[in-house]
Amino acid sequence: MRLSRILKPRFVVSAHCDLPCGVYDPAQARIEAESIKAIDEKYQANTDPEFRTRALIIKEQRAELVKHHLWVLWTDYFKPAHFEKYPNLHTLFNEATKLAGASGAKGSTDAAKADELLQKIDEIAKIFWETKQA
Amino acid sequence: MRLSRILKPRFVVSAHCDLPCGVYDPAQARIEAESIKAIDEKYQANTDPEFRTRALIIKEQRAELVKHHLWVLWTDYFKPAHFEKYPNLHTLFNEATKLAGASGAKGSTDAAKADELLQKIDEIAKIFWETKQA
Amino acid sequence: MRLSRILKPRFVVSAHCDLPCGVYDPAQARIEAESIKAIDEKYQANTDPEFRTRALIIKEQRAELVKHHLWVLWTDYFKPAHFEKYPNLHTLFNEATKLAGASGAKGSTDAAKADELLQKIDEIAKIFWETKQA
Amino acid sequence: MRLSRILKPRFVVSAHCDLPCGVYDPAQARIEAESIKAIDEKYQANTDPEFRTRALIIKEQRAELVKHHLWVLWTDYFKPAHFEKYPNLHTLFNEATKLAGASGAKGSTDAAKADELLQKIDEIAKIFWETKQA
Amino acid sequence: MRLSRILKPRFVVSAHCDLPCGVYDPAQARIEAESIKAIDEKYQANTDPEFRTRALIIKEQRAELVKHHLWVLWTDYFKPAHFEKYPNLHTLFNEATKLAGASGAKGSTDAAKADELLQKIDEIAKIFWETKQA
Amino acid sequence: MRLSRILKPRFVVSAHCDLPCGVYDPAQARIEAESIKAIDEKYQANTDPEFRTRALIIKEQRAELVKHHLWVLWTDYFKPAHFEKYPNLHTLFNEATKLAGASGAKGSTDAAKADELLQKIDEIAKIFWETKQA
């Protein structure tokens, strides 16, 4: 994957805007979720109160970004036809964004909770890339 | 690349935070630059004044994000040893961020200018992945 | 309504946060949508190019806030039980947020489009208050 | 009040923008202040350090929004004639925004302090609605 | 002044935060107002529609910052004793922030309007430095 | 300096925008750095956990602003000719922004660390004003 990055960076298209520009990628949400997991691991390994407070401040921001990137995909990329073809897509997004919030990554410092979020994002990513190939 | 995404989403790690969480990826800047290029193409293809104004509003935001993601890599990821090994790295980042600003992607609606930015980001990405493999 | 405001402002509870604080209200989204409608009306009544550009800049921001406030309700307030009881709730939110985006309030300066958004928000508000009374 | 909301959501107009769109409502500030009070109550009832840190992070944001919404009303809605008719209006706004800051809601986790802020906002709301009816 | 900057940068203290950190300076608002004036001058000298749209987008942001910096001084720095000593201080701030909004710098591209804002900020700055020396 | 402020506020020009408006000043970064130092001093003098958490939240924001203002100077103000004339300028900015981040002001509550940042900003300011006089 890293190799393909170096060889074909030209095919990495992922950003979003509401023009729309038509550029979307679940990687944006996953990236922030990976950050949350890394923060959780560092939090558990470091009991310094200042470090831990900073970790919670930053994790709150990354988790908000996860929610935002997922909401953008759900509202702006996916169309009615997609929701018909994937009946559980609404629920997947609702569960994924809940997993990034108070009952998930925001409210927990357990890397296992971040993994649940990552897995949910991967389920969405799988559907996303299927629809792109369609 | 898209295939590897589907097969190995687990290896897409890219976000950033200043804890630091240690998660970085030039893809974040590239994603926004791809969006700028797409906006430029839609701008040139659509003369509706409302559409064009919205395109400029959104392009301004995406370009600011390109600058931010590149600045973060330059300050937070790259260390003195990297700058010694890659003497042109400072200049590359300075040129790339300038290409995202008034003299580049912000000040132009020409997709060719966005391509210059994308190529500069790819030069940085090549060095980034070399240092990650080191 | 305005009267009840003066007499019982103590009962106006609506903000949101992701602690969670438990305070939610569809009025936050509606407020921004009303602003969009007012902007559209002023836009149509004023052909000054500077005024129109400012109107589009501000409308873009208000529409983004509508999307944000609706996403927060969809993810943070509504629970699985609600989605079971109101099978069309997911679709209502998806349509409402789409109506605030490029295919709706962001991409149009027609007050009729803002009215469609307001009506969709009212459908959501009706369900919201039913669940609060339950 | 909640009933009137359900029956007449059409009359809930409150957002703001600086076009101006002419849509204002003290409810926006009150909503955030209600959130602060709820956060204070949850903070006092929960001694978990992670929860408490998150509560302080979020309260800081809500309090900033209270200040912003009040500043907007003071500068953008109220006109010289209003300040002449209500000689204490400047002081009311200055005290209310101070009550949302370091010497008030930001610097305290006591719900009683949030109540002081809410009462001050209600004094402003009373004047606001009088001027709207004039 | 520029000389004193070079010779005594150590004495330039001006930022703000709501801890409070006790660091305030009207220069922050003036800086943004100077930017607005420069934007107005460039706007009048350049009829390119893309440039003009970008100028309006950026001016909107700088003007919002002027309002914010002034609101912070009015609420967080100035105390009741100051308002007693300077009876016109409330009005000065209200007029200055209005001059940064729709009826002033935001709604105009005339550098003369930006000058009115700058002069009002200077009146506030004069009082500010008097209180600092008191 | 404070005196010259009162007497010649007309010469305080410092804001930035990416039009470009041509208005820059290292004071913006220094102001935020002074705020960080003041926060560190108050943090060390106050062991109240709520106060300390708020101090860390606010310091994180001020430090981010220091990085932003420095990045803007580095990318938008300084030109290739400047980097040729001042070979250490890239390194100065890289070190200064690192000093505002996790390895510096963000990751520490020691005022001595804030002083290191302030001194680095002063080195940049000295060069900045030399280039303005050139």
TrEMBL record, chains A, B, C, D, E, F:
<dbReference type="GO" id="GO:0004784">
    <property type="term" value="F:superoxide dismutase activity"/>
</dbReference>
<protein>
    <submittedName>
        <fullName>Superoxide dismutase, Ni</fullName>
        <ecNumber>1.15.1.1</ecNumber>
    </submittedName>
</protein>
<dbReference type="InterPro" id="IPR014123">
    <property type="entry name" value="Superoxide_dismutase_Ni-type"/>
</dbReference>
<keyword id="KW-0560">Oxidoreductase</keyword>
<dbReference type="InterPro" id="IPR036502">
    <property type="entry name" value="NiSOD_sf"/>
</dbReference>
<dbReference type="Pfam" id="PF09055">
    <property type="entry name" value="Sod_Ni"/>
</dbReference>
